């Protein structure tokens, strides 16, 4: 199966990329294929995977949208905004 949250998440993202399915579909399929209880994977759903799942659920209107703060310090890709006058 998997030993850590990182190895579980890696398997999920690799399968998502190969099958082009949603994270929700990939996790459900993985759990059913490996005969695992859904509760057993809950400790392994954290960090980026948890945030990405929440975003999918929000897009499907299964969860209310959360407020997102504007990114005033640049984006996640490492682009830095220059501050004028300094």
Q: In DSSP terms, counting alpha (H) and pi (I) runs of 4 or more, how many helices?
A: 4
Helix content: 40-55%
Measured distance between first and last alpha carbons: 53 Å
Radius of gyration: 17 Å
Overall structural class, as computed from helix and strand content, comes to: mainly alpha
| Biggest sheet details | none
Query: pLDDT below 50 for ≥5 consecutive residues: which ranges?
Result: none
User: N-to-C SSE series?
Assistant: HHHH
| Shape estimate | globular
- Number of beta strands: 0
Give a nutshell description of this structure.
50% of the residues lie in helices and 0% in strands. It is mainly α and 86 residues long.
Write the layout of secondary structure elements.
Elements: H1 5-19, H2 23-33, H3 38-41, H4 47-59
């Amino acid at each position: 199966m998997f030993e850590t949250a990182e190895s579980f998440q890696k398997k999920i993202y690799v399968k998502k990329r190969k099958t082009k399915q949603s994270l929700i579909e990939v996790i459900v399929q993985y759990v059913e294929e490996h005969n695992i209880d859904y509760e057993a994977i809950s400790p392994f759903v954290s960090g980026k995977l948890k945030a990405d799942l929440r975003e999918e659920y929000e897009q499907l209107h299964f969860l209310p949208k959360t407020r997102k703060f504007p990114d005033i310090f640049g984006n996640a890709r490492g682009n830095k905004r220059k501050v004028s006058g300094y």
